[in-house]
Specification:
Layout (H helix, E strand, L loop, with lengths): L13 H6 L40 H7 L18 E4 L3 H13 L8 E5 L4 E6 L2 E6 L10 E4 L2 H9 L7 E7 L1 H4 L11 E7 L4 E5 L11 E3 L1 H6 L3 E2 L16 H8 L2 E8 L7 E7 L4 E7 L2 E8 L24 E4 L10 E7 L3 E8 L6 E8 L1 E2 L6 E2 L5 E11 L5 E11 L6 E12 L16 E3 L4 E7 L4 H5 L2 E4 L7 E4 L5 E7 L2 E7 L8 E6 L11 E5 L4 E4 L1 H7 L19 H12 L3 H7 L9 H7 L3 H20 L5 H7 L11 H10 L18 H22 L5 H9 L5 H31 L8 H5 L3 H16 L8 H7 L5 H14 L6 H28 L17 H19 L6 H32 L4 H30 L12 H4 L1 H13 L1 H9 L3 H11 L2 H10 L7 H11 L3 H8 L3 H9 L2 H10 L3 H12 L25 H18 L4 H18 L19 H4 L5 E2 L27 H4 L15 H11 L2 H13 L2 H6 L1 H12 L4 H10 L4 H8 L3 H10 ...
Length: 1402
């Protein structure tokens, strides 16, 4: 807990405290009066610390005396943030106004109001007649405070109501959200203020407090509400009616009807006009349209309090003077162009949602309401429970997403057993119902919200408080730890509530009474999207304090039976109790700490985890190492250091938790004691910055010497052996040296930039403004601001001081470049300025990384073996930051119409250096992944893509420069120069291109940027350079040679490719293995005709989209990367046939037969022009066509085997002729014919025929089977059976049988009738004496007859013969004899018309 002041006198109730206002100051529990403070002594209270929180006029040293010793350490470590942190004092003008106000005020009546606003990060305070506004994010050195004078009439009215309590509400209107894009690090530059006195209902509006000419504010008074005045004039014109000093009607009105809450929002389409909304205690909702010329107000909603009473057993009417209670916007920040905005209103029993139209005439409409206090426990708080007497909803808050609503609730209860009364405080969290469509649903009826979790009880039994005190309590949400909330009490305490493991833990922030009370609490805006910041509280007299996450996690306790007020706060605890609570940190459960170390997204927080995992042994090892190093600095001697460090386990940890790594980090991250925080930006102009960095570097070098122990590097070697095999700890130590060197060089660069700015031509800027301007300065500010927000211990330091101190976090530079480059380089800036700032940033990045590389080269003997260790500048955060800057520069060059030539040349020069650094970072990351054996394809692809983008952009700009310079008078052939006539101009241009691209050529060589190298060689027409590069880059797949062959292949320069391959024979073979359509040419060149024939055969039947005949460019069809057309495949098969005949190897005849068979199948589907077929039939074959067919022999050649010959007499009648047309022409017209220009595998071709369903197409399927191999027929026997079943179904056998019986067919008539059936023709085609097939017949796969009916297999296992298939037909019992006759006649007859006589039927 924080600052315990023990042994205070006990109080009975808040009511008693008010009754004692007029007692002696030393007996009052309230903050002593300014005059009475002289009479009270700290010794009057037992165990009171001697150093209390200072009064505002005390020096900052008193605050430091009050602070923990942790704050005084040179190095700041996250693990030490276990108690509240003093982050900054008030601006000096606030101190002065407080002092003057307290001295002029009557003791006991001096009341200071104040608050904080998260959206704008502004604090405000009212001291007497002054309104003071400043940013609580800025360090004390640069705090700029705006001082506004309250109008005299407003002061008089508020003073008249002072006895009711001074209650001010203030809302900031951020105009930056309306007129320009915002950034989390950007300070607001245009803010309006709406100020309201809740008791007197006076409303004051300043349209822009940061304007150079702050005009008098617009004011509306409570009297105008009563008189119905629509708008009030601006003060300074005609003054409103003055009230008499002794007239208290205004006070009575204010007391009976006051404002409870105020919110405001800008109107996006009007200049400095906003709308404010206020709830009145009489159930009214007031709207104020505020403009620089006046305030228009109207009552927009009545009857906000419903008829349901939240009280039980009291008989009181519904409603209370404190309701409606609170207003809050659903979404905290309004975006540009937003036309509607929703807000929530908390009444005594429900949550109401309203919508306000942000237009010239704002209109408020009710959207929905949800009852949270009812008899239904699922809706919220259940009432009418035993012991409940009264329920107060006190305040409402909404999360950043506008989905979760948190309500602070107080319940007055009475214990039936003991008859004692107590208060219970709870948090009710509601959320929108899942699946609720807000845009389309009618939300006015039914339930909209649901409980996110059970009601969280903060304090189950607390002291009974008065209603006025309850209404002074406020709720804040959104800080760390995730899900925590802060409850502010009216008497000046802030209690953090945090739910962990279904248990509520409380952490109360309190100050001694002489330090004043807590005015408000807010959250440090995080620099990361979606991540909460630490809690920050504004005190009355002691400045700003932050409550770190670890302070809540370690210091929180379970709810005591006390109050959320100062009664029962830490200031009343005994010293023994405080010591007991302090032991919580030492007894923290590691499991709890590890659970809490996760953020809301489930990611581990590195800093927190590393602190949690540290043990007492780690602390001892670090302390011993620091002590030994300190002795070494004094004496230069180290005796027995190695053994001592081994004894304490200093070598057992690796990585960032290692003692050596932590001591090294403390050296480089030391905060300078002699740096002042009162000079702000001037600190960057001081030589002390550079001196401090040099001192750190010298000390770090001493640390390395200490590790080496003069000569033998025993400690260093011990680190290698005792730590993990990776040596990560030693690398971290050396990386600290790299970063420190990079920071020193960056500081020198900043000095150079500052000097160049000082010599600028703009004389209107001061020297300081020039020195701290520029992109690098903005980057320094951003990185420093991130560090301050993430480490609250640094909040009272200047951004530049933090930046130059936190050396180990140098990666943050690149994080900010990645996330916030649009802030550093704004599109609103002139294009020339953007180029200048981009070059400045690129130079800074190059300076940092090259300095680190130089440090590594100088200390290379120190570095452990790589073993998969990635350099810090190869980490993803660094790479992404570098690429963001590079992308901006590339985009600027691509759209460079508005850039002059010098600026373009400048950005190209910087991008060239920058590209080398970016690519080296990627190489380091890829190398580390390869060494670790991890998958690196994705990273490699990203590297190749970005490499080519970078270098290609640079090379294109070089070509542009050459063209421009070549066209200039006197430089080449431009403007009619003679060089274009005599031919020297082209040579001169190539020479200039060669000169300008030397550096780029070197980078492209190192990083194997093949596209850039190829383009250079082509543009320079330098075959010698091309061959030199091909010889340099020879890898397992040919390297650059393979790429060159690919380019020639894509350009269809096949002759050049083959001629170049003569010098690179092995690389050419590697390339041709992947491009067999060129391999046959190479094989013919080598007189390998048989091999060329096989290659051509494979290419002709290949499914590779790159297969096409490679002849001269002029004769090659432009297939691009499309499929080969069937005519092309036919030509390739014919070429294969010629090559086989020329080769005449042992099996060339079999190869010819296979080629002939493939030609026949190709003929079956060939068409004169490409067509389409049903895509459902074009499935990918299990094997390519060449794999499905094997070399064999033709059997029984038929005289009509030639597809171009006339039909023989043995063929069926012309109606049954099936060899005169291709398959596609036979498809029915009703089929969806799509393009079939590409080759179909046999399986798909057969399925296409069967789907056509015509007799001719079914017979075509048997033709395809005939010309495939026996292995294909065997593996697709089921498909062959399906063909026979389809063939049987083609004829109407019942009708044929009826004719057979009715007409009494003779044997000759039977033969003639059956000869026209598909079964007959299929049998003749497959089993006839003159049937022709390739590699065996159909009988080897599916015999014609069944030997015995008893051996007929079941239908589950398939049919054993064609006869068995016919027997499965439904009509077989009736017409079976006809079917078998057709089958047998077809297999026995070659030509029905030439037989001597008919064959009788059995």
């Amino acid at each position: 807990m924080f600052s315990p002041a023990t042994g205070k006198s006990k109080h009975t109730s808040f009511k008693d405290r008010n009754a004692r206002k007029n007692l002696q100051p030393d007996s009052s529990p309230m903050t002593p009066f300014a005059d009475a403070r002289k009479l009270s002594f700290d010794d009057s209270i037992a165990n009171r610390p001697k150093t209390g929180t200072p009064a505002p006029w005390a020096s900052r040293l008193s605050v430091l005396a009050r602070m923990s010793p942790v704050k005084k350490k040179d190095n700041v470590d996250d693990r030490e943030q276990i108690e509240p942190v003093y982050v900054g004092e008030f601006p000096q003008v606030v101190h002065d106004e407080q002092t003057n106000f307290l001295r002029r005020s009557v003791p006991g009546e001096a009341c200071i109001a104040g608050g904080m606003d998260k959206g704008t990060a502004l604090s405000w305070m009212i001291c007497g007649s002054k309104l003071l506004i400043w940013s609580y994010l800025s360090p004390a050195a640069s705090k700029k405070c705006v001082v506004l004078d309250l109008p005299s009439d407003v002061l008089r009215i508020s003073n008249a109501n002072a006895y009711l309590g001074d209650s001010w509400s203030l809302c900031f209107v951020n105009w930056d959200n309306v007129y320009q894009s915002t950034n989390v690090l950007r300070q607001v530059t245009s803010v309006g203020v709406v100020l309201c006195n809740q008791k007197s209902r006076v409303v004051v509006y300043w349209h822009d407090v940061y304007s150079d000419d702050v005009v008098n504010p617009a004011v509306t008074l409570a009297s105008s509400f009563r008189l119905g005045i629509a708008s009030s004039p601006v003060f300074g014109g005609s003054a409103p009616r003055r009230l008499q000093s002794n007239d208290r009607r205004e006070s009575i009105l204010a007391e009976s009807c006051s404002f409870n809450s105020l919110i405001a929002s800008p109107l996006p389409f009007d200049d400095h006009i906003c709308v404010a909304l206020a709830t009145s205690s009489n159930g009214e909702l007031w709207q104020f349209k505020c403009s620089p010329t006046g305030i228009h107000h109207q009552n927009v909603y009545d009857g906000l309090l419903g008829s349901t009473s939240p009280f039980t057993g009291c008989g009181q009417p519904s409603g209370s003077k404190g309701y409606p209670r609170s207003l809050v916007w659903r979404f905290a920040l309004s975006s540009k162009g937003e036309s509607n905005r929703q807000f929530f209103l908390l009444t005594d029993h429900e949550i109401q949602c309203f919508n306000v139209q942000l237009s010239a005439n704002p209109a408020v409409t009710k959207v929905w309401s949800h009852e949270i206090i009812s008899t239904d426990n699922d809706l919220g708080i259940k009432k009418d429970l035993a012991g409940q007497k009264r329920i107060w909803p006190l305040d409402i808050q909404v999360d950043e997403r506008g989905k979760e609503i948190t309500v602070l609730v107080a319940i007055f209860c009475k214990d039936r057993v003991t008859s004692s009364s107590y208060m219970q405080y709870s948090l009710l969290t509601m959320q929108y119902k899942s699946g609720l469509h807000e845009a389309s649903s009618d939300l006015t009826h039914g339930s909209v919200l649901q409980k996110k979790a059970p009601v969280q009880v903060i304090i189950p039994k607390a002291r009974v408080e008065e209603e006025e005190f309850l209404f002074s309590m406020r709720l804040r949400v959104g800080g760390k730890p995730s899900g925590s909330a802060v409850i502010l009490s009216g008497d000046g305490t802030a209690t953090v509530s945090y739910l962990w493991a279904n248990t509520t833990r409380l952490y109360q922030f309190d100050l001694p009474y002489d330090a004043g009370k807590v005015l408000d609490a807010s959250v440090f805006p995080s620099t990361d999207d979606g991540e909460e910041g630490a809690w920050v509280v504004l005190t009355e007299k002691a400045g700003l304090w932050a409550i770190p996450e670890k302070a809540v996690l370690f210091g929180g306790v379970e709810p005591p039976e006390r109050s959320l007020s100062r009664k029962g706060s830490s200031n009343e605890r005994s010293a023994e109790e405080e010591k007991k609570n302090l032991s919580v940190l030492g007894n923290s459960s590691p499991i709890k700490a590890n659970v809490d170390a996760r953020d809301s997204a489930g990611k581990w927080k590195t800093g927190f985890t590393s602190a949690v995992c540290r043990t007492a042994q780690d602390e001892e090892a670090e302390a011993l190492l620091s002590h030994l190093f300190h002795d070494f600095l004094l004496s230069g001697q180290v005796d027995g250091a190695l053994q001592k460090l081994k004894n304490v386990g200093a070598f057992e940890r690796d990585g960032e938790t290692n003692a050596f790594a932590r001591v090294s980090k403390s050296i480089v991250d030391t905060l300078a004691k002699h740096w002042t925080t009162t000079r702000g930006a001037e600190i960057v102009a001081l030589a002390v910055v550079s001196n401090q960095l040099i001192e750190k570097q010298q000390k770090h070098e001493k640390f390395l010497q200490f590790l080496a122990l003069s000569s033998p590097r025993r400690i260093a070697h011990s680190m290698w052996h005792h730590c993990s095999s990776s040596g990560h700890a030693l690398q971290i130590v050396l990386e600290h040296g790299e970063k420190l060197t990079g920071m020193i060089q960056l500081r020198e660069l900043q000095n150079m930039i500052s000097q160049s700015h000082l010599t600028g031509v703009n004389s209107q800027q001061s020297s300081l403004e020039k020195e701290v301007s520029g992109a690098l300065w903005d980057l320094i500010q951003m990185v420093g601001e991130r560090a301050r927000r993430n480490t609250v211990l640094l909040m009272d330091r200047d951004n530049a001081e933090v930046f130059y101190s936190k050396i180990s976090d140098l990666e943050e530079v690149f994080y900010c470049l990645n996330k916030h480059l649009d802030y550093i380089i704004s599109v609103e800036q002139p294009l020339k300025v953007q180029v200048q700032r981009a070059c400045e940033l690129s130079k800074a990045c190059v300076t940092i990384i090259r300095s680190a590389m130089h440090y590594k080269n100088e200390h290379h003997m120190w570095y452990p073996p790589p073993d998969g260790l990635a350099r810090w500048y190869s980490q993803p955060v660094v790479r992404e930051g570098l690429w963001t800057v590079a992308s901006f520069m590339i985009g600027t060059l691509a759209d460079s119409s508005g850039i002059d030539s010098p600026s373009k040349s400048d950005i190209c020069a910087h991008l060239e250096m920058f590209a080398d650094v970016v690519l080296e970072a990627y190489v380091g990351a890829i190398t580390a992944k390869i060494e670790r054996g991890e998958e690196h394809k994705g990273l490699s692809d990203e590297y190749w893509k970005r490499r080519d983008t970078l270098l290609d952009s640079l090379y294109q700009q070089i070509k542009v420069f050459v063209n421009v310079r070549y066209q200039e008078p006197g430089e080449g052939g431009g403007f009619g120069g003679v060089d274009s006539v005599d031919g020297n101009g082209e040579q001169k241009e190539e020479g200039m291109l060669r000169e300008l691209s030397l550096n780029l050529l070197s980078i492209a060589r190192r990083h194997e940027a093949y596209p850039t190298l190829w383009n250079m060689c082509c543009d320079l027409n330098n075959s010698t350079l091309l061959k030199e590069l091909m010889h340099e880059s020879l890898g397992p797949r040919g390297g650059f040679s393979y790429f060159v062959f690919e380019q020639l292949y894509e350009n269809k320069q096949f002759s050049k490719l083959l001629r170049l391959g003569e010098e690179f024979a092995q690389e050419l073979i590697t390339f041709l293995k992947d491009n067999q359509d060129l391999l046959w040419l190479h094989e013919i060149f080598l007189h390998q005709f048989s091999a060329a024939s096989k290659t051509l055969h494979v290419v002709a039947l290949s499914e590779d989209s790159r297969s096409f005949p490679a002849t001269e460019k002029e004769t090659v069809p432009d297939f691009g990367k499309g499929e080969l057309m069937l005519p092309d495949r036919k030509r390739l098969l014919l070429l294969s046939k010629i090559a086989a005949a020329a080769g005449k190897d042992a099996d060339y005849e079999a190869e010819l037969e296979r080629i002939d068979a493939d030609l026949k199948i190709l003929k079956l589907q060939s068409v004169p022009s490409p067509r389409q077929t049903d895509p459902s039939l074009i499935s990918q074959a299990n094997k390519t066509f060449s794999e499905e067919t094997t070399v064999g022999k033709l059997t029984r050649p038929h005289r009509c085997a030639d597809l171009n010959s006339s039909p023989c007499r043995g063929c069926p009648a012309p109606s049954r002729r099936h060899n005169d047309e291709d398959i596609l022409k036979l498809l029915p017209d009703d089929m969806d014919k799509q393009q079939i220009g590409s080759l179909l595998p046999p399986w798909d071709l057969i399925k296409l025929c069967l789907k056509g369903g015509t007799p001719a197409l079914v017979l075509r399927a048997f033709d395809v089977f005939a010309w495939t191999s026996s292995s294909f027929r065997r593996s697709n026997r089921s498909l062959l059976e399906e063909c026979w079943k389809n063939a049987v179904d083609q004829d109407d056998w019942e009708k044929l049988y009826d004719f057979y019986i009715a007409e009494g067919w003779s044997d000759e008539d039977t033969v003639q009738g059956l000869g026209k059936t598909v079964v007959f023709q299929a049998s003749r085609r497959c089993y006839g004496p003159e049937s022709e097939t390739y590699e065996g017949g159909f009988g080897e796969v599916l015999p014609l007859r069944q030997d015995g009916i008893e051996r007929l297999p079941s239908m589950d296992t398939g049919s054993a013969s064609v006869e068995a298939i016919l027997m499965q037909h439904k009509d077989f019992p009736i017409v079976g004899k006809l079917m078998l006759a057709a089958l047998m006649l077809g297999s026995a007859q070659a030509d029905l018309y030439e037989e001597d006589g008919p064959i009788p039927m059995e």
